[in-house]
Amino acid sequence: MAKSARERLGVLLGGSKAAEFSARLDAPADGVGLEVAGVGPVRLPLRAPQVKKLIAVARPALFGRREDTLSDSSVRDTWQILPDQVTLGGPAWPTLLDGALEYFRGELGLPASTRLRAQLHALLVYGKGQFFLPHQDSEKDDAMVGTLVLSLPSAHTGGELVIGHAGQSRTYRASKTELSLVAFYADCPHEVTPVRSGYRVTLTFNLLAERGAPEQESGPLDDMAHCLEQHFDAPARPRYGGQALDPPRRLVYLLDHEYTQRGLGWHRLKGADAERAALLRAAAAQAGCETVLALAEVKETWDATPAGYDPWDDYGYDEEDEEGGGEEAAAVEGAGADEDYELGELIDDEITLGWWTGPDGIGGEEISLYVWDYESCASTPSTDLKPYDSQYEGYMGNYGNTLDRWYRRAAVVVWPRDRAFAARGEAGSRWALDELWARITKGDRDGARTAADSLAPFWKGSGVQPGQLGSALRVAEGLQVPGTAAMLLEPFRIDALTPEHADDLAAVAKRYGVPWLGQVTEGWFGDARNRFEEHRYDWTERLPQLCAALCSARSPAVAQLLLTGAWTRVDGELRLWTVTGPAEIRRARLERLSLPLLRILEVADTRLRGRIMAALRSCPDTVLECLLPMLRHAAREQVEGEPRAAELAAVAQECGDRLGALARRAPRAAGDWSVAWTGCGCDLCGTLGTFLDSRSRRTLEWPLAKDGRRHVHSRIDAAELPVDHGTRRQGRPYRLVLTKTEELFSRERATRRQAGADLAWLASTWNLSGEVGVDARP
After folding, report:
1. 560 φ, ψ to 5°?
2. What is the C-alpha separation between 491 and 502, in angstroms, rounded?
3. Strand partners, 197
């Protein structure tokens, strides 16, 4: 398998490694089929009813002692099904078995010319209390060198396979969800411990060693080159199972030391890194591959427990709590040093490349590339190195206690030369765009198109940087293929656009048409999911200069396209936030729209300006929370002596009309408790609306079930209604008690006062026409 090639390469680069006497490999059960005579197809993972059917067709297992075959449940207590009753197959089985045998050949240290073959021996079922005492397998064939145990996934405890050799011992526990394969030499004593619960079901095989085709003697370099060829030719297999993928595009070999961007180079590598990188680079050249150096960020998440950890803390138990005097117990107090934790199993790891050099090790560029588990290997595990940061997360329910560790490592990245363009392009490499442009300028437009098309599967999700937009625009225009050009521009966002891009933007619009560009920029603007991004509209500060540059490039239609796109997004935000609460959030969102709206109005033509004014007039009075900050921005930017812009004067007049109406509104009558509000249209909101609409009614006691109370509470809070709401927990159902508050009157007085103050500022700053001298006294 590809995984085996990666692991063997790491071993070769790390130096000699003593052969193991046993080894384990886990694999997904998908695509593996098992049938047993008298039972039929056996589904995985195993369940107790199906295991009982297996036992019904089994017999007590025998064992050998010297020349005798015996049956003694005090030595071996298990059920056995003979191989002629078992059929093992399925679409994934042949590939899985071949890859596993090649993996075990390497792990057990057998010669490269040896071919292992697995001969099914028996299906074994261990129930509660069953076991097999320490023993040694007899060699049932002259070619037999070992035993392969395939544990089928099932929920059970106990039943561990314990293997010993030369004073060492290995313990293997089967998986509940995956196939577990363990291989070991036939001369190794081993035992199966008693099963405590559930069932342990295994298939045992005799491992036969056969001489393969004779191979020429090869040195480490040839072996490494062979590993690379295998890695890039075999389908990729994800760590957690699933269907096989296309062969990997790259191999990332992690070095041991940290380096800076400036210090990363083939001739500046440290210690063992220098020798290993040189060997891998030479093997890559022999295998027809290209290499670069990279900087990697490695994150590992471990199951971990702190020193002195008490699992009962996870349940918040404290003696003081029983007496009522303690506070809620924390799971684990603050994290200490990384060394203060005991590591359990590795839960997950991530590798990200953020920088790499050119193949010659000179220069470099920022990239963003996630490395999949089937693309990486190392001679030194990260756990043998010191992390630069770690963070402990206490008990998290299903997640347990976890420790995150971060490492900075250098890496050698390898890819076949014939896949180099896609391998580098997937990282959002500036080199890919430069190479495409070079081919275009040399007249190789067809080659550029073919290379660009190879980026399509991943280009949108690659690490393309905003600063590469200019290059992408030039290449898109030069390709002269609308679909491929649109694909190259797809990863960018509108905030990457600057006035310096005006000429290139005009060129692609001329090449493919403004409607085509409109479809591209539609994606640049994003959709409603981007609504909460803090700096979504910062780019509009450049909008007037960008539009002027586009007009100078004789592309006013493109300027209009961008203006219309910007206004469409701002309009959508205005329509949303002017009717959305609570007030603190609404005001912040609307004020954030004030500068973008100002820049759009500054360069809008008469037609667009008319659309904007019509939309603003259709908004409720909360739109003032955007328009007044916009007018204040404009007043601060006003150059003394210059006339007021007509479009801003129109907005100021609209604000003045609204503020005047608010300030002139008659005070609420003392006994008028009506509250204007529109609900969601449901029956509950209808009842609430009737209560709110009443001028005389201040309280409502409303028998209502829990879900109904929750809905009414949420509606009152969302609209910030001047109504106290609580639950009287008497009777069934409980009563929801609503009370209109004096805030109904104080809010209106505050609104009139603020409207008067804002109107006075408008009148003095913007020379409003009409009535502005309003008495805003309460």
Report:
1. -65, -35
2. 19
3. 157
The widest CA-to-CA distance across the chain, in whole angstroms, is 117
527 close to 536: Cβ distance less than 8 angstroms: no
- Do residues 370 and 306 make contact, with C-beta atoms less than 8 angstroms apart? no
CB 298 within 8 A of CB 407: yes
Which among 251, 195, 255 has a CA at the least distance from the CA of 228?
Answer: 251
Q: What is the pLDDT of residues 465-495, one digit of tens each?
A: 888 999 999 999 999 999 999 999 999 999 9
Q: Which two tokens stand for residue 289?
A: 């591959």
Q: Which residue has the higher pLDDT, 527 or 729?
A: 729
Q: How many residues in total does the chain contain?
A: 778
**Each residue's pLDDT tens digit, 490-517:** 999 999 999 999 999 999 999 999 999 9
Cα→Cα distances 299→148, 241, 347, 423, Å:
34, 21, 11, 23
Are 137 and 186 in contact, with CB atoms under 8 Å apart? yes
CA–CA separation, 376 vs 231, rounded Å? Answer: 11
Provide mean pLDDT across the span 263-283.
84
Burial of 480 (0-12, 13-18, 19+ CB in 10 A): middle
Quote the tokens at residue 687.
């009842």
Tell the residue number behind the tokens 């207590």, with chain if given: 77
**Those residues with Cβ within 8 angstroms of residue 606's Cβ, 6 or more apart along the chain or in another chain:** none
Please tell me the distance from the alpha carbon of residue 757 to that of residue 587, in angstroms, as a whole number: 18
Of 13, 53, 6, 18, the closest CA to residue 34 belongs to 53
Report the C-alpha gap between 778 and 772 in whole angstroms: 17
What is the Cα 12 distance to its own chain's centre? Answer: 33
- Quickly count: other Cβ atoms within 10 Å of residue 492's Cβ: 21
Taking alpha carbons only, the member of 578, 596, 502 closest to residue 540 is 596
For residues 80 and 60, is the Cβ–Cβ distance under 8 A?
Answer: yes
> How confident is residue 671, by pLDDT bands cut at 50, 70 and 90?
confident
Indicate the pTM of the whole model.
0.62
Cα distances from 242 to residues 30, 92, 124, 174, 764, in angstroms, run 7, 11, 27, 20, 71
The helix-helix angle for 430-441 and 445-453 (nearest 10°) equals: 150
Which tops the pLDDT comparison, 88 or 720? 88
With tokens 């089967």, the residue in question is 174
* pLDDT recorded at residue 337: 53
The yes-or-no verdict on residue 374 having pLDDT over 70 is yes
CA distances 208 to 121, 139, 152, 164, 509, Å, are 12, 10, 22, 21, 68
Contact 21, 165 (CB under 8 A): yes
Return the DSSP state at 669. Answer: P
538 vs 652: CA distance, rounded Å: 24
Q: Can you list the alpha helix ranges (DSSP code H) found in 384-428? A: 420-425
pLDDT-derived band at 282 (thresholds 50, 70, 90) equals very high
pLDDT number for residue 542: 94
Do 217 and 232 form a contact (C-beta atoms < 8 A)?
Answer: no
Instruction: Give the H/E segment covering residue 106.
Output: helix 93-107
Nearest to residue 26, comparing CAs of 3, 48, 59? 3
- Residue 521 structure tokens: 């920029």
